[in-house]
């Protein structure tokens, strides 16, 4: 059993880090993706027992790692080009679908989805539905036999907004509004917000209702960078659904802990 280790989840927008000590999650934080040069420097520093304060929280940077051994690093990545940068770090383990005790997985399933559904089932209960509102918005469900039932993938909220701005001549890039926008808008920015937000809320509700027809008592867990914002919208639009959603930013880390910890 590794008594202290790092988890690194490489998503399509950013890196999600966690520091585990004695089978608990001590700290979690996010950074941007790193350049090849930055990763090489990080590994070099790490070997001389220096943990860059730019990447690591002060607690960990100040402590450094045990000089006698490097902190093991467990990586779960859905971005192969970023994974490749870490291959020079000797104490790296890349987590794969084979590390998970789930059945019914298909070979190209994202490891982030598999770990999140495993983490959620382990922490809450099976059957379980996970909604990950990240770069992509994904639904991933597993039954009481730890069998993958399946799921769905669509562009995440940020990606929907970006693609409209990038692929049209007249639509501006907008941020998600803090509160539910007006549905019938007389203004472009708000019309975009309305279209994206109300459509995503209706879709999520539909997926949840469909899941609950088969698995009525299943917990519904939501994670990912847009999860809190989405639940805020749900509270205004569909409060009964909002009340059933568990927001947990750490689902993937619970998955890593169940796989790696003892
Ligand atoms: N500081 C941030 N940097 C980037 N995205 C953020 C940030 N805070 C919230 N987000 C939202 O999180 C979404 C990305 O979710 P995240 O779970 O970080 O992605 P991934 O795991 O795919 O890298 C974006 O669509 C964006 O709207
Ligand atoms: C669907 C995803 C792009 C989600 O990535 P994320 O938004 O978390 O960065 C990722 O899980 C992935 O590349 N999956 C492979 C295809 C699949 O899960 O079927
Ligand atoms: K994600």
TrEMBL record:
This is Type III pantothenate kinase. Belongs to the type III pantothenate kinase family. The keyword Nucleotidyltransferase does not apply. One of its GO terms (cellular component) is cytoplasm. It is found in: Cytoplasm. Pfam families: Pan_kinase. Its cofactor is NH4(+); K(+). It comes from the Bacteria. Homodimer. The gene is coaX. The active site is at residue 112. A monovalent cation. Ammonium or potassium. K(+) binds at residue 132. GO terms for biological process: coenzyme A biosynthetic process.
